[in-house]
Amino acid sequence: MDLEKIIFLKYGELSTKKDNRAFFIKTLNKNILHVLNNVEISYDYGRMFIKPKDNEFSEVINKLKNIFGIHEIVIAYVLKDRELSKIKDSIIYLLANKEFKTFKVEVKRSDKNFNPDSMTLRSEFGSCILKNIANKKVDVNNPDLIVNVEIRQKEILIYFESIKGLGGYPVSCAGKGILMLSGGIDSPVAGYLAIKRGVKLEAIYFESPPHTSERAKEKVKTLAKKLALYNNDIKLHIINFTEIQEEIYKNIPHEYLITIMRRMMYRISAIIASRVNAKVIVNGESIGQVASQTLTSMSAINEVVKIPVIRPVACFDKLEIIALSKKIDTYDTSILPYEDCCTIFVPDHPVINPVKQKCEEYEKLINYEEMIYKAVKNKETITVTNAIEEEYKSLL
What we know:
CATH topology of the largest domain: Rossmann fold
Strand content: 15-25%
Oligomer: single chain
Distance between the termini: 50 Å
CATH class of the largest domain: Alpha Beta
Helix content: 25-40%
Mean pLDDT: 92
Low-confidence stretches: 388-396
Number of helices: 14
Number of domains: 2
Structural class: alpha/beta
């Protein structure tokens, strides 16, 4: 039987982009080629076709499952001969090894000049199956198997199952963002959701040695590696926050420690964002979850930067965030017991409704501009990929 096995992708949300569709599809193609080297890719406005050169279909599909911008992944069979009898023979041939009792046929004609029409074709293909394969029944509501036939301009596609993709937009089509990545549960989930909307992420992590350990930093690197699975890779900017944090602790009224600390982190994140041409700051703040995440606190903290701050999990409750962290495999890493900057020096009674004027008054007690300049100047930047190294495995 003259059939070629291929993979094709359905775009889903990308197909709604009209005049910008070509840009989104080209970006998706680029992202796939970044992950898959040994494939041939062709595409049009409706489909993207992938031919693994070494017939490594399982490996290719597993990688495609982690690429945003793909609605469905389909293994299909291409028939170049568009004669009706050849289509019927191919369907029967492909169904020979399928286990099913009930079925229905779906026909899509992108070539409207092909005769007969879709309704007639469905009937003919269904009758052919009933005639040639014993003990099968048609069930249009809940079939065991759907036989899909697409009539294209130069070929016929036949397929039976599809695998759900991640959806969303291809990474980088929306520009770049800076993720404030801590070792907690929330920020990796926020990063994942931002990537899903096409934001290419770089990340910033605040360490405070000796108050935070090397294990805490390695934990964050592991989280960055897990996000790199969807982001292609991640540049991780590591900021030594010790001097700033100690000065805040020594000089600022303790109920305002977290508020002032967050304001400093925002300032530094905005500087890094401007240097790497990031358009937004992304973080894992969730409304009301902790003292610094009340609406009043967010407002008092947010005012120190002009760059937009995106909070993808702002309206999620903790259980929803945990569920998503388990889905993307960051939860077990996030709960490792290594403290980061956000969990040390936490006062017993942090202010939940900080006054902006007081924030400004207290900040005059420390020379924060000089310390911020020094912290940014001495930052460490590494590029994190999804390759898992033994040193990170040992954390788990």
